[in-house]
């Protein structure tokens, strides 16, 4: 009984200790540095003394080996502790009666000073309650007073918090396991004592639910990690190329996940219902290949251009019928089509912003990075992921050069070069690049215009048909290296140069994309203007067909075959086809570039090196590096095209999923087989959010044209789910009018009123303004607090150094070996008064007991280095932790702890 | 993994999951990695928690560590006696701290210990010299090394006592943009 009791006292003490430290390793680890080893032993011994379950002792990390010095030490410690505890127990028993009478709050305040005694007393009390009311635990619960209950509840909560944060404690595993088990036992035991009467059952039920929920969550997490693909591939790449190259592949994987979700949305809600329940192929004109194209509709060259049968399939907008409901489910396909198109953008926006937010959470203050160049180089430049000796070699080399560079920078930071020449060169470079950008924009515009002329002609060659895609791909392939060559003129620092380079490539891609879009829009307008005449022709054809003379009036004429009906050009499908082609050609160009530029080059360098007059591997061609920025930008822009095109070509996302899947494997193979690690250091973590920002920008930019077409262009009259309507969004109005009760329609009409929307927007602006100002003031107070802490620390250090000098003078007479030790041990004593005064100013209420308790605490550490003269009240574990403890820290910890009670 | 229940009991796995940032699968994977290091030493049954240590010579040959200039320090910091010989618990501890999920503070605490070569709870000039020498494989001359160390102390030493305390170190490392991504070992 007494043994068990002691164990619980220990464990409660551990809880208090744990709570004091639980904030962050930063607050408590000063006190933990030296004594951690000893505490480990203690923790290992604890289960043995508890004697709770057999077999747990081993789990705590194994008993020390017999005969080892460790074991002896542990034994000695154990004996000492037993002695001390016997003394303490008697003391506690003597004082427990008196203590119980005392005011609760006072004892609570003192709880930290002699935590063990207090807790022991409490446990004894609890035990008494338990034994006296030997009936059910319910009566036991009632017999406990409110304060005790609150206290147990608090401790249980603390233990739970401890369990939850156990993994981020900087303790060795054995100690973590021991503490975890103790905490769990504690919770298990005393959770039932909480709650009263009826509330008790509810409480127990809630606890059970919480437990089940935690278990479910863990299982789900286990499941989730099992679903993450390519972990091993990425690990390989990481160990060969460091985190920067791997960041691209992680980005690719993330993109793949996003695209899978989009694919699921579109495929599950649009394509599958249409295929299963919609009208079959050949039933109506929009689902049939026209008579003129029928002969060649199955040729590969035609299919490759997404014409023929593919054009009239569910992959494209034009295939869908404008029937309001389809199938026996009465599935509202046009509505679903519209909503899916909107939710693709909604989901993408949400996921991008969320991942951006979670990225920024990790990074703290960003401003003052330049103050730590050397420190960052020293402590964060080694990439712990590297597991390949070649990469390690290049990493060593790059670290060495970066150190040398910054030394040189430091030594001649204000060296004056020829400023005028540099300026001139930079202006020249920018001029050249702007010329390039304009030229590429014009080239694309020209080509798209020409392709419109080509499309009117009859037999055109393969090149003429695919000119736009080829030109765009070639521009994307050759412009970035050109920019890099031009950027060499500028003589920027590599990191700044990289930013410029990224910005320029981004501008190039964006310019190309938008020129392409503008030209496409011209095309669309042209088609729209022709639409009216085609519509008339269609009507006239049908009219003449049915009213033609010379047909027996009594027999109804068979309907015109859908292939023969004249039809409009269906600009939506045309746009979709353009995007589809662009995506496919982009993919092929990427793969061919990798194959030629990386793989063949690597093969050439590797095998021709034996019979070449200079060293190919070290000399001119050498092996290619993995082009991270270009690849990431390519991926981002590809995604932009997908977002833009997916509304007009639902199958585009499916193609993109395939593309990402193949490019994952292909690029993994290429990078492992034919690339060499980077010479230049590239910041991966920082640019992650940079990439996300670009992605967000591209998402926004690709949202614009789609929104424009949806809101302001009339849909084609004879194809697509919105045909026959004035605008595409009319489908919502239609659904509201026909499928919802009238009052809902009124509500929606009311909500759509500009009189309500404008105030709502205003309100949103106000909220943004308010939140912005709140965050500003918070960050200001944060900075102030930091300044305060800094100032306090400096004051304290100056105290410390004064004291340290004094003690050093004192200890000059003593042996040299002891001098360091004694200064260390006396330092806290010197500063203790200071810290006590600090805590007094912080907490006005508890001046008397506070000062006395902290002063009383200040005594034992000073005498602590003589183990014999240990005062009976001081716990061995905490006592030894104290001398190392930062006095201000402990005081602040205490004052911070108080509000909890 | 049908035989996972013979290696650990269910409770053991749960406890490990509470104490590390790993899921069950990852713990099993780590166990197999550990077991592969010394197949004749590490038993296939951990339910009775045998007291087994894998010597540093084997730990250091792991592909994750073998090219790391600080591998010895890592092993020493996480081993129980500071000699680099690791039990399975230490092993799990090490990779848990190095995992992606570990918070910045925890990583900073252990990074400090790793760079504190002489275990005196301060990173002094000597520790810094060791770090630079290991990072550059001794390719900087003595003057440059001392200049770099001086600079680091100049930048990061908040209290001007000529050495970096844990607080100085944390204060500095919290602002490092790359710390989380580089102080990370994928298992």
Describe the structure using short key phrases:
heterodimer; A: about 900 residues; mainly alpha; 32 helices; about 0% strand; B: about 190 residues; about 55% helix
If you had to describe this structure to a student in words, what would you say it looks like?
The complex is a heterodimer of chains A (901) and B (187). Chain A is mainly alpha-helical. Chain A contains 32 helices and two strands. Chain A has helices spanning 2-21, 25-28, 36-50, 56-59, 69-101, 104-110, 115-132, 137-143, 146-165, 173-191, 197-227, 231-277, 300-304, 308-311, 333-362, 373-380, 389-411, 419-456, 462-465, 467-487, 494-547, 571-608, 628-645, 652-674, 684-712, 730-739, 742-751, 754-810, 816-842, 847-864, 876-884, 887-897; strands at residues 624-625, 675-676. In chain A, strands 1-2 form a two-stranded parallel ribbon. Chain B is an all-alpha fold and 187 residues long. Helix content of chain B is 55%, strand content 0%. Chain B contains eleven helices and no strands. At the A-B interface, helix 10, helix 11, helix 12, helix 16 and helix 17 of A face helix 2, helix 3, helix 6, helix 7 and helix 8 of B. Chain A: Residues 814-826, 834-855 have a biased composition (Polar residues).
Per-chain topology:
The complex is a heterodimer of chains A (901) and B (187).
Chain A: H1 2-21, H2 25-28, H3 36-50, H4 56-59, H5 69-101, H6 104-110, H7 115-132, H8 137-143, H9 146-165, H10 173-191, H11 197-227, H12 231-277, H13 300-304, H14 308-311, H15 333-362, H16 373-380, H17 389-411, H18 419-456, H19 462-465, H20 467-487, H21 494-547, H22 571-608, E1 624-625, H23 628-645, H24 652-674, E2 675-676, H25 684-712, H26 730-739, H27 742-751, H28 754-810, H29 816-842, H30 847-864, H31 876-884, H32 887-897
Parallel strand pairs in A: 1-2
Helix pairs in contact in A: 1-3, 1-7, 1-9, 1-10, 3-10, 5-7, 9-10, 12-15, 12-23, 12-24, 15-25, 18-20, 18-21, 20-21, 20-22, 21-23, 22-23, 22-24, 23-25, 28-29, 29-30, 29-32, 30-31
Chain B: H1 4-7, H2 10-19, H3 24-37, H4 56-59, H5 71-78, H6 88-98, H7 104-115, H8 125-136, H9 142-156, H10 166-173, H11 179-182
Helix pairs in contact in B: 3-6, 5-7, 7-10, 8-9
């Amino acid at each position: 009984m007494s043994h068990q009791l002691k164990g619980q006292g220990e464990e409660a003490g551990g809880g208090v200790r744990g709570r004091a430290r639980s904030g962050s390793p930063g607050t408590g680890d000063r006190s933990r540095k030296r004594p951690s080893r000893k505490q480990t032993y203690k923790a290992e011994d604890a289960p043995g003394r508890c004697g709770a379950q057999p077999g747990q002792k081993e789990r705590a990390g194994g008993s020390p080996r017999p005969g080892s010095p460790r074991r002896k030490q542990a034994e000695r410690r154990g004996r000492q502790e037993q002695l001390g505890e016997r003394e303490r127990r008697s003391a506690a028993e003597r004082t427990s009666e008196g203590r119980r009478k005392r005011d609760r709050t006072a004892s609570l305040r003192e709880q930290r000073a002699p935590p063990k005694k207090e807790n022991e007393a409490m446990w004894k009390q609890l035990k008494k309650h338990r034994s006296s009311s030997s009936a059910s635990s319910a009566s036991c619960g009632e017999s406990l007073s409110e304060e005790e209950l609150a206290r147990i509840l608090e401790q249980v909560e603390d233990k739970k918090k401890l369990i939850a944060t156990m993994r981020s404690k900087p303790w060795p595993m054995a100690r973590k396991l021991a503490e975890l088990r103790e905490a769990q036992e504690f919770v298990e035991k005393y959770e039932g004592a909480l709650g009263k009467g009826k509330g008790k059952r509810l409480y127990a039920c809630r606890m059970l639910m919480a437990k089940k929920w935690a278990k479910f969550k863990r299982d789900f997490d286990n499941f989730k990690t099992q679903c993450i693909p390519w972990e091993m591939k990425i690990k390989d790449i990481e160990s060969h190329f460091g985190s920067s190259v791997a960041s691209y592949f992680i980005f690719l994987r993330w993109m793949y996940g996003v695209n899978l979700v989009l694919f699921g949305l579109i495929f599950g809600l649009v394509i599958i219902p249409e295929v299963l329940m919609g009208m079959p192929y050949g039933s109506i004109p929009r689902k049939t290949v026209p008579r003129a194209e029928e002969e060649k509709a199955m040729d590969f060259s035609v299919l490759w251009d997404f014409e023929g049968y593919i054009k009239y399939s569910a992959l494209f907008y034009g295939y869908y019928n404008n029937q309001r409901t389809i199938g026996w489910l009465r599935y509202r396909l046009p509505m679903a089509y519209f909503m899916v198109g909107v939710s693709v953008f909604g989901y993408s926006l949400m996921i991008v912003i969320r991942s951006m937010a979670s990225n920024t959470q990790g990074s703290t203050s960003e401003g003052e990075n330049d103050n730590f160049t050397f420190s960052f180089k020293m402590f964060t430049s080694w990439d712990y992921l590297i597991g390949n000796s070649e990469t390690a070699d290049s990493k060593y080399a790059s670290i060495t050069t970066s150190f040398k560079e910054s030394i040189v920078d430091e030594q001649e930071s204000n060296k004056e070069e020829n400023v005028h020449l540099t300026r001139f060169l930079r202006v020249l470079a920018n001029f050249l690049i702007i010329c390039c950008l304009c030229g590429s924009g014009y080239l694309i515009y020209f080509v798209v215009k020409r392709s419109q002329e080509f499309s009117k002609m009859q037999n055109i060659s393969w090149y003429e048909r695919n000119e736009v895609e080829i030109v765009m791909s070639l521009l994307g392939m050759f412009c970035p290296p050109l920019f890099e060559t031009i950027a060499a003129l500028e003589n920027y620092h590599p990191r700044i140069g990289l930013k410029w380079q990224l910005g320029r490539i981004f501008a190039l891609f964006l310019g190309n994309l938008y020129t392409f879009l503008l030209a496409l829009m011209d095309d669309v307008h042209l088609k729209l203007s022709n639409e009216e005449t085609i519509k008339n022709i269609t009507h006239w054809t049908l009219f003449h067909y049915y009213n033609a003379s010379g047909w027996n009036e009594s027999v109804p004429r068979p309907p015109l075959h859908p292939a023969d009906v004249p039809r409009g050009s269906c600009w939506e499908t045309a746009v979709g086809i353009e995007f589809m082609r662009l995506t496919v050609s982009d993919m092929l160009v990427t793969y061919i570039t990798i194959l030629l530029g990386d793989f063949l080059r690597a093969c050439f360098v590797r095998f021709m090196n034996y019979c070449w007059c200079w060293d190919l591997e070290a000399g001119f061609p050498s092996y290619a590096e993995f082009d991270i920025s270009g690849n990431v930008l390519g991926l981002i822009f590809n995604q932009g095209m997908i977002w833009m095109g997916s509304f007009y070509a639902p199958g585009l996302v499916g193609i993109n999923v395939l593309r990402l899947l193949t490019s994952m494997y292909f690029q993994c193979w290429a990078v492992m087989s034919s690339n060499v690690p980077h010479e230049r250091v590239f910041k991966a973590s920082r640019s992650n959010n940079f990439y996300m920002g670009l992605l967000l920008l591209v998402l926004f930019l690709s949202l614009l044209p789609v929104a424009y077409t949806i809101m302001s262009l009339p849909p084609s009259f004879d194809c697509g789910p919105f045909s026959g309507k004035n605008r595409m969004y009319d489908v919502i109005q239609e659904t509201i009018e026909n499928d919802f009760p009238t009052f809902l329609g009124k509500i929606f009409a009311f909500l759509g009123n500009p009189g309500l929307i404008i105030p709502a927007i205003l309100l949103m602006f106000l909220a943004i303004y308010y939140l912005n100002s709140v965050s500003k003031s918070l960050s200001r107070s944060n900075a102030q607090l930091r300044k305060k802490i800094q100032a306090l620390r400096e004051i304290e250090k100056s105290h410390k150094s004064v004291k340290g000098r004094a003690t050093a003078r004192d200890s000059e007479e003593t042996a040299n070996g002891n001098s360091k030790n004694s200064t260390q041990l006396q330092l806290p004593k010197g500063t203790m008064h200071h810290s006590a005064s600090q805590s007094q100013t912080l907490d006005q209420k508890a001046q008397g007991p506070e000062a006395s308790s902290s002063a009383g605490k200040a005594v034992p550490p000073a005498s602590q280095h003589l183990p014999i003269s240990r005062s009976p009240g001081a716990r061995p574990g905490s006592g030894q932790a104290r001398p190392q403890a930062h006095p201000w820290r402990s005081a602040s910890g205490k004052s911070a702890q108080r509000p909890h009670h | 993994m049908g035989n996972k229940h013979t290696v650990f009991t269910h409770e053991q796995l749960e406890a490990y999951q509470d104490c590390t940032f790993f899921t069950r699968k990852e713990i099993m994977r780590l166990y197999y990695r550990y077991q592969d290091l010394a197949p004749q030493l590490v038993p296939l049954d951990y339910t009775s928690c045998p007291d087994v240590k894998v010597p540093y010579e084997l730990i250091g040959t792991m592909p994750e560590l073998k090219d790391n200039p600080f591998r010895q320090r890592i092993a020493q910091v996480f081993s129980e006696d500071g000699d680099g010989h690791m039990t399975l618990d230490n092993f799990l501890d090490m990779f848990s701290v190095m995992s992606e999920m570990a918070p910045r503070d925890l990583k900073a605490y252990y990074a400090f210990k790793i760079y504190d070569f002489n275990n005196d709870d301060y990173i002094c000039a000597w520790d810094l010299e060791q770090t630079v020498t290991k990072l550059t494989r001794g390719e900087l001359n003595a003057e440059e090394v001392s200049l770099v160390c001086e600079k680091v102390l100049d930048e990061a030493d908040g209290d001007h006592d000529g050495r970096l305390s844990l607080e100085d170190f944390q204060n500095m490392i919290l602002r490092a943009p790359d710390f989380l991504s580089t102080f990370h070992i994928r298992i």
